[in-house]
Specification:
Elements (H helix, E strand, L loop, with lengths): L1 H28 L12 E3 L1 E3 L3 E15 L2 E5 L4 E4 L10 E2 L4 E5 L2 H28 L1 H12 L16 H9 L2 H16 L2 E3 L4 E6 L6 E2 L4 E6 L4 E8 L11 E6 L5 E9 L9 E8 L9 E18 L8 E6 L2 E6 L1 E5 L3 E5 L6 E3 L12 E3 L1 H8 L1
Parallel strand pairs: 1-22
Antiparallel strand pairs: 2-21, 3-12, 3-16, 4-11, 5-7, 5-10, 6-9, 7-8, 9-11, 12-15, 13-14, 13-16, 14-15, 16-20, 17-18, 19-20
Helix pairs in contact: 2-3, 2-5
Protein name: Efflux RND transporter periplasmic adaptor subunit
InterPro entries: MdtA-like_BSH
Length: 378
């Protein structure tokens, strides 16, 4: 029994020792070759250089403002009378229509009283004119005949002699006449009429409000003509021209409008070193305050190309493709926009990258995109 256990123990030890040596042999005999790195050739998109005239387009933006606007102020005091239309924002008026009517009953009575005094004063001198100045009597008689107290006071007859002037002035007629005309002018200020076709954009009073002299009543604008005020670099101050057509786009790029440069400010802003240009635009869809973007064509650069700014390296170089190998050439950038750059001194016929390549370097092996290569050959 004991000898059997001894034999089994020896066999077990031998099996363990054999499995250890067998495992070592298998491990030592297993050879895994190192993988060879694959040579990756990147595919690039290219274009062939063709120099030409590149328009320098200056982007600008701003908010529309009505070209014709009137701020309504009261020059007299009184109660705002109701009119044919409600004095509310958005209300349209035709030229000549009454915007605001202030109660002038009391002041109107004063004007009529002054007219009556003038009429009576002229009437009182008529007997003296008949006797002392018969040669001028008829024209003053005609003046009285045409005098209507319910209408504006007519202009006084022209006085031809010094004696007539002294006589008329000495009786206080001239003073009374100009005083009455002054009252009439002030009476006209109780009514404010629309100076042009437009819409009320702001109303600060309502019917029945007591209006005071100097109080702002609202704003009235013409809705057919608008202006866009934009600030551009002073570099292009001598390149922009009045009357130049400008393309305008809405903020969501959904609509395009045509405008033209109406005015250019002659002064440069000291802080921003920009000049202000005013672009006139007409369209029934436009509203005051709309945000628009403008593209101003400042000039054309001759013998130049326009590429994406990401293709230009910091040291003013770009990549070209020569026999499937990338190379660098120096260029002369002359204008930068938000996404583009205008380059000069790039020879015609060169193949340049049209899209940037990650990790690109001079001497890098590349492959031109097949479909593009076929299109270029066509």
């Amino acid at each position: 029994m004991n000898s059997r256990k001894i034999v089994l123990s020896i066999v077990g030890v031998l099996l363990i020792i054999g499995s250890i040596f067998g495992a070592k042999y298998i491990i030592n005999s297993k050879y895994t070759p190192k993988p060879r790195p694959q040579k990756v050739v990147k595919t690039v998109i290219v274009e062939t250089v063709k120099n030409g005239n590149v328009p320098i387009v200056v982007p600008a933006n701003g908010n529309l403002v009505a070209k014709r606007r009137v701020e309504l102020y009261a020059e007299v005091q009184g109660v705002f009378k109701p009119g044919n239309k409600l004095f509310k924002p958005g209300q349209e008026y035709r030229a000549g229509e009454i915007l605001i009517q202030i109660d002038a009953a009391e002041y109107y009575a004063n004007v009529q009283s002054s007219k009556s005094n003038l009429y009576n004063l002229i009437t009182s001198i008529m007997p003296d004119l008949r006797l002392d100045y018969p040669e001028v009597f008829n024209k003053w008689q005609t003046y009285l005949a045409n005098f209507d107290i319910n209408k504006s006071v007519p202009i006084l007859p022209e006085m031809s002699t010094e004696k007539e002037k002294y006589f008329i002035s000495g009786r206080g007629i001239l003073t009374n006449y100009y005083s009455t005309k002054n009252l009439e002018q002030r009476l006209a200020k109780y009514t404010i009429a629309a100076p042009f076709n437009g819409v009320l954009t702001e109303a600060l009073v309502t019917e029945g409000t007591l209006v005071r002299s100097g109080q702002k009543l609202g704003e009235f604008i013409n809705t057919s003509d608008y202006e866009l005020e934009v600030a551009i670099s002073k570099t292009y101050s001598d390149l922009l021209k009045v009357g130049e057509v400008v393309e305008l786009k809405s903020i969501d790029k959904s609509k395009t409008y045509k405008g033209k440069v109406a005015r250019i400010n002659g002064r440069v802003d000291l802080t921003s070193q920009t000049i202000t240009a005013f672009i006139e635009v007409k369209d029934p869809d436009l509203r005051e305050g709309m945000y628009l973007e403008a593209n101003l064509t400042a000039r054309e650069e001759v013998d130049a190309i326009e590429v994406n700014r990401s293709l230009l390296l910091e040291n003013d170089q770009i990549f070209v493709v020569r026999d499937s190998i990338l190379d660098l050439i120096p260029v002369n950038p002359v204008y930068f926009s938000n996404s583009k750059v205008v380059l000069k001194d790039v020879p015609d016929g060169l193949t340049i990258l049209s899209k940037p390549v990650m990790g690109a370097y001079s001497g890098m092996l590349v492959k031109v995109f097949k479909d593009q290569e076929t299109n270029n050959q066509d």
